């Protein structure tokens, strides 16, 4: 195989590794942001449950205060009843007391409703707090792993880029320029195999004479359709080669 082609194959392998590492390094911060957003979403739900529970408790406390005021008012009305002189006045006091007692019963019923509602709210808050605490630990651990992975990737990326420069410096400048042109156009796949008589990238069949020239492997050739650098790498059948050599002998 031509030395230039061997260097190009090595360069393509390095470029693919570099591209994969660059993608992974770019993806890790996005992954961290995603899990942080998920954690924030769970935190907001917990705050909503806490707010609902707090509102429930405020409403219950207000109703309990209203009941206390109603009871004080009933006590005052009963004190005043002892001083009335007519039956009509006495009945009026009784009607007002009955009305207030009905309001107390309504408030007590509402308090029972709030108590029933508070039970699942309290359970939701407690379970959400436990889940959120566990998830916070998990997120911190995931962030630590992502930071460590990024550090390792960046070190490897630096080594690969250094190795790439070494290989690129060994290539003939004109050919390297062609390699780079095709690489950028083909998304890091500038080289294709043509062992079966067609380009493995674009799948277009090669002209017979072009294919024969390629098989000689005495020059770098480019696909006439997609422009990729072509290689010819027939599978070596060792058993057949040995058998043939034995027949010759």
Overview of the molecule:
This protein folds into two domains: 3-171, Orthogonal Bundle (Helix Hairpins); 190-248, no CATH class. Helices cover 79% and strands 2% of the residues. It contains five helices and two strands, in the order αααβαβα. The protein has helices spanning 3-81, 87-170, 173-186, 208-216, 238-248; strands at 191-193, 229-231. Strands 1-2 form a two-stranded parallel ribbon.
Structure at a glance:
With 249 residues, this protein is an all-alpha fold. Helix content is 79%, strand content 2%.
What is the CATH first-level class name of the largest domain? Answer: Mainly Alpha
Largest sheet, described in full?
A: 2 strands, parallel
Number of strands: 2
- Regarding quaternary structure, what we see is single chain
Q: Which fold name fills CATH's third level, the topology of the largest domain?
A: Helix Hairpins
Radius of gyration: 42 Å
Count of domain modules: 2
What's the order of the H and E elements?
HHHEHEH
Average of the residue pLDDT scores: 88
Regions with little confidence, pLDDT below 50 for 5+ residues? 236-249
Architecture per CATH nomenclature, i.e. the level-2 architecture of the largest domain = Orthogonal Bundle
Decide which structural class fits the backbone: mainly alpha
As laid out across the biggest beta sheet, the strand order is 1-2
Shape: rod-shaped
What count of helical segments does DSSP give? 5
Q: Please indicate the percent range of residues in DSSP E strands (runs of 2 or more).
A: under 5%
User: What is the helical fraction, as a range of percent?
Assistant: over 70%
Terminal CA distance reads: 29 Å
